[in-house]
Structures are given as structure tokens and as C-alpha cells.
Amino acid sequence: MSRKGYLCSLAVAAGIFTMSCFLMNLRPQMDVTGYQGDGTVSQIRSAESPGFKIDFATFSLATPYKARFRLDALPERHAAIQYEAGLVVDLAADEASQYPPRPSGLMKGDHGSVAMTLEDASGTKLFQGEAKLTTFGWSAPGNLPLGHISAWYYRQDEGAHPRNQPWFLAVAYSPGADSVNRRAHIRFIGGGWH
Fold first, then answer.
1. How far is 139 from 102, CA to CA, in rounded Å?
2. Where are the beta strands (DSSP E) in 113-157?
3. Please, which residues bridge with residue 193 across strands?
4. In 10 A of CB 11, how many CB atoms?
5. What is the pLDDT of residues 41-58, one digit of tens each?
6. In a 3-state reduction of DSSP, which class is residue 37?
7. Domain boundaries in the chain?
8. Which end of the chain is more exposed for a tag (fewer CB within 10 A), N or C?
């Protein structure tokens, strides 16, 4: 590629980056200030799909873990939103440098399993799932890979939103024969997909 072609490509890339930043600032992001449940809530800034994430306490993958989290006054979006809960694992240096980043050290062997159930205030199950860590799908909404097993997609025509809150997320982690002492935490996400 000639120098002129390279500079032209660089200018186009800079223009695309600038436009996407501009569009992200035009699109209303989700207001997380009213959240009243457990964990720490923050925005997932995105031009295509603004969202939020809620991070819960850290635990070790070497020991069993059980928790029940209360989700109340979740941030709202007007049309439709996908909710998902999953496991975020601290990455080793070699895992963080790969693309996409994911905990490849947990993708072979028996590193345990996670079960999750999301219920509304009436006890109705919104989603439920259980899977071994080796079978997780890994995505990266909100800065770190999320190992996920199930999701619930809300559409505006299904009724008033948010539905029957507070919601309760029950989580149980059981270590496997190959489990190691790695730090992890549960993350709940609404929207924010890139």
C-alpha cells in the first residue's frame, strides 16, 4: 500500500471512530441512578444497545458458593431488552491478551458448574439454567468476558416493564475435580450488546 493509500485509510478509520463516538453520545444511555438492589450497578455505554451491568461479590472457584441477590428498580429501556446473568472470571495475562479475551484455562477439564434462576416477586421464573464452565458461551458486554448459560428477552408488547419487581437471582456454584483458586463474580446485564 502506498503512503497516500495508507493515509487515506487512516483518515477513513478516524472518521468512523469519531462518528461512532458522536452517535454514542447522541443515543440516550440507561439511567442507573434509581437502582435499589444488591451489587454495584453501572452503565454499559453503547451506540447500538445502551445497557447496564450489576456486579456482585467476588468468590473463589475452589470452593462452593451460594447466593441470592435482590434486583429492584432496574434501569428501563422503552422497546425491548435482553437480560442475562453469568460468571465473570479474573483472567490470566495470556488469556487477557487473546482476542476475544476469555478464560481459556477453564475451557478443558472439570472446573465446576453454575446454576442460576431469576424469579420475579410472585415466584414466576423468568429464566433458569445450569451448565459446566467448559460449556459456557463467552461474550464481552461491559469490559470482561461473561460466561453465560441462559437469558430472558423482554418485549414491550408483553406488558408493563419492569415486571413485578423486586426480582431475585439465585446462584449456586459447585467446584469440579479440576477447580483452581481463581477469583470470580456473578454479573447481571440488561442490554449493552455490541
1. 8
2. 113-119, 125-132, 137-139, 146-155
3. none
4. 10
5. 998 887 777 888 999 999
6. coil
7. 1-30, 31-191
8. N
